[in-house]
Amino acid sequence: MVYSIQNEQICASIQSLGAQLCSLREASTGREHLWQGDPAVWNGQAPLLFPNIGRLRGDVYRLGNREYSLPKHGFARRREFALESQSSSQLTLLLRDDEQTRASYPFSFELRLTFSLEGNALSMRHSVVNTGEVDMPFCLGAHPGFFCAEGDVLALDAPETLALYRLDGEKGLMKDEPVPYPVPEGRFALSSALFQKDAMVFDGIRSRSVTLLRQDGSRVRVEYDRAPCLGVWSQPKPPLRYVCLEPWFGMGDFVDFAGEFSEKRHCQILAPGQAFMFPLRIVIGA
Asked: What is the superkingdom listed in this entry's lineage (predicted)?
């Protein structure tokens, strides 16, 4: 099912499947900012990544003496969320653990997404609650994709040198050594060539927002609070048509990773009864 919320400036639509944002339009013009293109190019729009991000080594992870299997980016994006509350400009969707999730992720949890419209901004509040009796490790990430074109620009808060991780093309796992990626003017141009080696994953990024500056003068800013990683991804085949700006708490497995799930880079550990909050804000015309 698709739910819609609206104010005087923005209209947003959200699917119950995966609690995925599927449309973000300007109310006055109807202009769409979220990817709506050919599913043969990319069939996502803004998938939710939980309880893992990226690929697991061997598609399995270890907890104590047991191994479990999880798909790339986890199971939340393929699960139906229940409607918990809705008003004209706000919506909350909820996923709870069940027998099926516990078979691959043996923890009790509540995962909520609250979407709120505030002027020209959409706020997305991710909430994870450990409803079980043991510590719960998890990773959590957002993956919104926006229309763009060759030559559009990404602008950070300020100049910085980023730690860039790339994927091993054969295994789809993270390479161990980051490469310095200087952004001396705080911005870099987008092109399909950037993604010939798959996603660009920046770790330890200091900027707390990134802005897509389109050549037609429009812009979209993604504010991601304290998320330690930012993935930037698109299909490498030209012409460039969309870009995903992905704040993450967690990363995919490295090629030589042999530890437990809780030892994954930037993995979060949530004590029983505790909650984890991840606010994300998308501003149109920032």
From this structure: Bacteria
